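FORM 12-B: Structure-to-Sequence Request
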């Protein structure tokens, strides 16, 4: 167990207020695991700067120079949380036996790392961190999170309830993940589809001690749309069903209108006709929007553009290769 090389991947976006405290806690935890011979001394904490506009990269750069435990990777611009996680995992893939992804604010309990490692040593290639409850969330976030997971399941997206991106992946799982080439990333739905042996670890969520959450309502909605359109075609099936039902309703209205015309009640059917036109028009607009979202995804995938561009990387190699950095 002491030979396990563990990399912690920490995505960061404008986290200067929380970063110093997080670095101290992560360093203490990793050193403790090393002393207890649960991980190798070659283990690292890799911070991924997702195009921050504040002093995040400056702090990462400073800490990497002070302590070889820390490593840093910087994007050329903001590519998003999912891309930052993927970039960190891919950068660590050739060096680590296992990778754990964790948020920079450390609301996800770092003491759960011991249980992650136990599951890994017992043969699990993927270990999901699942929060015990959402008591630390406000009413709005708790409500929207519940809707998010129910909507995902309803629309055929395989996700694990109350699991964000706190997880462990073994080298085998990382190598498999590298085979997925889609630009539209939704790791919470993609990783459960890989089918490797997995386990779960429950943890309590801590209060955020510094800074503010970067997951705004707009970003949560974008994540939900990306997840649904990337992992499921059920919305298209729903459109087909709605179209069929709308056709039947329209047919009934048409028959009713003919009967009214025969009976000389043309004016009486005016409201029904207007309502039906509005209904059909609304359904068509929504349907076109959903189809357009899928076409947009196909358009982006067809370009085969890189999912992210790395501007800089600082990583102290093992002592025998200390002269070089990536």
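FORM 12-B RESPONSE
SEQUENCE OUT:
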């Amino acid at each position: 167990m002491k030979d396990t090389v563990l990399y912690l991947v920490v995505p960061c976006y404008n986290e200067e207020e929380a970063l110093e405290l997080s670095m101290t806690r992560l360093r203490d935890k990793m050193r403790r695991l090393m002393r207890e011979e649960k991980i190798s001394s070659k283990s690292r904490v890799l911070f991924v700067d997702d195009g921050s506009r504040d002093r995040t990269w400056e702090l990462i750069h400073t800490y990497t120079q002070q302590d070889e435990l820390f490593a840093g990777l910087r994007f050329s611009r903001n590519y998003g949380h999912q891309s930052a996680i993927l970039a960190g995992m891919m950068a660590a893939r050739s060096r680590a036996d296992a990778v754990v992804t964790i948020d920079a604010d450390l609301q996800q309990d770092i003491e759960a790392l011991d249980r992650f490692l136990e599951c890994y040593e017992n043969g699990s290639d993927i270990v999901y961190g699942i929060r015990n409850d959402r008591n630390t969330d406000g009413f709005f976030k708790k409500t929207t999170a519940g809707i998010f997971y129910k909507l995902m399941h309803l629309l055929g997206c395989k996700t694990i309830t109350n699991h964000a991106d706190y997880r462990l992946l073994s080298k085998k799982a990382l190598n498999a993940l590298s085979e997925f080439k889609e630009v539209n990333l939704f790791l919470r739905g993609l990783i459960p589809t890989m089918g490797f042996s997995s386990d779960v670890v429950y943890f309590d969520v801590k209060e955020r001690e510094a800074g503010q959450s970067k997951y705004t309502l707009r970003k949560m909605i974008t994540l939900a749309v990306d997840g649904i359109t990337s992992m499921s075609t059920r919305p298209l099936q729903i459109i087909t069903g709605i179209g069929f039902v709308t056709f039947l309703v329209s047919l009934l209205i048409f028959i009713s209108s003919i009967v009214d015309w025969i009976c000389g009640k043309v004016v009486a059917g005016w409201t029904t006709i207007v309502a039906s036109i509005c209904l059909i028009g609304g359904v068509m607009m929504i349907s076109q929007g959903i189809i357009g979202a899928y076409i947009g995804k196909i358009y982006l995938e067809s370009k085969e553009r890189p999912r992210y561009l790395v501007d800089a990387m600082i990583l102290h190699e093992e002592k025998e290769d200390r002269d070089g950095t990536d």
